[in-house]
């Protein structure tokens, strides 16, 4: 008796979409890494964070953040529209639930760019999320980046560095750490893509639900 293979039947089922958290202290390059991933053509759905802080000169509403008023953000909290939210340096930041559900339904991997405090909440609510801690090559490098962008006065800069030192203590809570050193952005991006690729090769894949 001859045996014929079933047409187009995959031997291994396709991996479900991942929820990938890219976190780390202010100034490590979270935004830059995500933008570079987009430029390199990596297929993912980036969930844009909502914030009540003022828009910086080079930022675009809906691409970098959803910029809302404090009153609008507080209404989102009351309506339970956010996966997580926190007050960061005096302003609200949070992840809209609807955007994550829409992204997962599309079948694409979901990228969340959030602060360390928010990452802890996501780990609790989405245990199968892949968490990546992004860091600069050194504290001196991080300080130089914060100072160069000229968005904080000396006192604010001091507070951000103090916060960064505290946030570094949470590194062991993450699945992976990636160093984004000056002039090595593409190396950091390739490492993140390699992590995602490896996660999709797991025999027991993560299954993110919200």
Commentary on this structure:
The chain has 210 residues and is of the alpha/beta class. It has a single domain (19-199), classed as Rossmann fold (3-Layer(aba) Sandwich), CATH 3.40.50. It has helices at 30-39, 70-78, 97-105, 116-125, 139-149, 154-168, 185-199; strands at residues 19-23, 44-47, 50-51, 66-67, 82-88, 91-96, 109-113, 130-135, 176-179. The chain has a five-stranded parallel beta sheet with strand order 2-7-1-8-9, with helices on both faces. A hairpin with a 2-residue loop joins strand 5 (82-88) and strand 6 (91-96). The radius of gyration is 19 Å and the shape is globular. The model has no long low-confidence stretch (mean pLDDT 89).
Q: What labels describe this entry?
A:
7 helices; Rossmann fold; 210 residues; alpha/beta; globular; 38% helix
Number of strands: 9
CATH topology: Rossmann fold
Q: What's the overall average pLDDT, rounded?
A: 89
CATH class category name: Alpha Beta
Strand order of the largest sheet: 2-7-1-8-9
Low-confidence stretches: none
H and E order: EHEEEHEEHEHEHHEH
Radius of gyration, CA atoms, in whole angstroms: 19 Å
Report the β-strand fraction as a percent range.
Answer: 15-25%
* Approximate helicity band: 25-40%
Supply the CATH superfamily name.
P-loop containing nucleotide triphosphate hydrolases
């Amino acid at each position: 008796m001859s045996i014929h293979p079933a047409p187009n039947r995959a031997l291994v089922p396709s991996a479900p979409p991942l929820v990938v958290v890219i976190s780390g202290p202010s100034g490590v390059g979270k935004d830059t890494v995500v933008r570079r991933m987009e430029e390199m053509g990596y297929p993912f759905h980036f969930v844009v964070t909502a914030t009540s802080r003022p828009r910086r000169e080079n930022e675009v509403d809906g691409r970098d953040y959803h910029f809302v008023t404090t009153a609008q953000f507080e209404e989102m909290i009351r309506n339970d529209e956010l996966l997580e939210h926190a007050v960061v340096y005096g302003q609200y930041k949070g992840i809209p639930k609807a955007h994550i559900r829409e992204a997962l339904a599309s079948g694409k991997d979901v990228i969340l760019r959030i602060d360390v405090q928010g990452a802890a909440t996501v780990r609790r609510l989405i245990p199968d999320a892949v968490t990546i801690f992004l860091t600069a090559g050194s504290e001196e490098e991080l300080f130089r980046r914060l100072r160069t962008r000229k968005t904080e006065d000396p006192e604010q800069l001091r507070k951000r560095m103090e916060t960064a030192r505290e946030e570094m203590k949470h590194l062991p809570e993450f699945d992976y750490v990636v160093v984004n050193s000056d002039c090595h952005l593409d190396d950091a991006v390739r490492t993140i893509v390699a992590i995602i690729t490896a996660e999709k090769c797991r025999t027991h894949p993560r299954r993110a639900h919200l």
